[in-house]
Amino acid sequence: MELNGLSIDQAPPISAPVRFYLTAPLFAILAGLLILFSDSTTLMTRYSMDSIIITHALTIGFLGFIMLGSLTQMLPVLAGVVIPKIDMTSKVSYLFLVFGTILMILGLMFENSIANLLAMSLLGIGFTMMITVISLAILKVKNFNPTIKAMATSLVFAFFTVLMGLFLLLTYIDNDFAQYRNMIANVHSVWGIFGFAGILIIGVTFQVLPMFYVAPRFKQFCKKRVVWLISAGLFIWLVTSIFLESYSIIGKAWIATFFWAFATTVWMKLSARRRPISDVTVWYWRATSIFLTLGSFVWIFNEYFKNEYVVMVAILIGGGVILSIMIGMLYKIVPFLVWFHLNAMGYMTIPTMNEMINKNLAKIQFVLFMASLVGFIFSFYIPLLLQISALSFTISMIILQYNVVAPMLIYRKIKKTKPDFDMSALTIS
Amino acid sequence: MSTIKEYLTSYHSRCDEYFAVMEENASNSLSSTTVAYEAFAQCTERHFQMEEKIMFLEFERKTGMTEGPTSMMRHEHTQMRNLIKQMGEAIDSDNKDKFFGLSETLMILMQQHNMKEEQMLYPMAQQHLTSDSDRIVDMMESMIVE
Question: Whole-model pTM?
Fold first, then answer.
């Protein structure tokens, strides 16, 4: 149903977000195995090939997939807009992104220019398709709320992050461009983490915390200004880090301060939440606050240690914050989507959300994941910890994969039976 | 007087509060949440009926869209009524796991539904029904729940 570009239907079909959600943990498992077989000294520097490959298995394969899947799901609900041809677009771009990511990993691993070139095209097309259709949908929005503004801003950073990423891949194909590599890589990573992922997470949190946990709403200042202030910080950082390097700490401190303030606010809102339930998703939010606080400060002080600790920042913020939030969200969204779509088809006897994912398995997954993060950090000082942590990480991701597949198996099983109730009279075509 | 949008939005927060109290009591024991459950169920039912019997009808009359967004919202009301009913049954049979499984599902469904209304339907309704806004809010305020 569409009214002047506004849709109130529950779009899109379940397959659009879920295909991204089911694939994401596989890339995390791959990343875990790659860490397991890597040497700890090569992982200590951000520019080693091993570090780059593992980082991208996680950032594109895990985080990118979950963020894109979630945008297809959340935008129609939050903004009431239809994403044009979302079923087809998500299917095609998904294939492009899966093969693009695999080829990129192989291309970098074996220094194969053809694989890198193919990866560049596939990732370029895959990301551009998704960013374009989502942007087109956002352009149709009539009532912009802070979450949609954050999504739009985050997409701008996503676009530049992808563009810079493609250029960086080019530097491995054509050596003439290699001289710009480190400078661009620096901007690519900071804009990707704080601009694309960070701003998207902040925007979604404005909605999700009050909604799911009946936590107090965020203050108007926070909702109206923070995204702009962080964006300004990212520009200040960009300019200073390229032209006035000795002042780039100003930009860093600016960005980090707002993220730290955000982390503190999330902690306080959670403590003041009206719902008493403390499930694994709440634990993930708590962990996010702690890791974001630590990560923000280590990132600032890393400046004084000649970038020795930048890998630690990546573990704290990439793993402790972004991965944590995404995993926590998967635990809520996948069972809900299964319930929602089955219910809309007329099935009345559906397991409740809590019955779809085994609570104890979710808790074990959380503990193993947290242990691996702490282990990765301390493996800077005790290299032996790296392999154990990688193992713990891999197992936690295998459990995560199982936990997101389980509700989908329930979905398939129930769909094969006859609905309890014919909803065709109620559904609107 | 508040507008249709403000009035109905504030009702969403009110129901959320009742929901939180109900869950808080239920986390101690299900038998102690009967009163809070009734309060939540009544608040939600009143809100549904204010929309279904007054606001939606006015909106449909004015815009001519009977198969439009209001029909989808009615369908979601049915889904929520069902869950609320099942929660009552879970309380009666003292099945805590079932109760919290249902309340979790209801919470997300309800929030998603509220968001669609607050983001789309209420602004549309406010736009089409501006001149009748006070009268409609009055009618909703004095409505007797069936």
Answer: 0.88
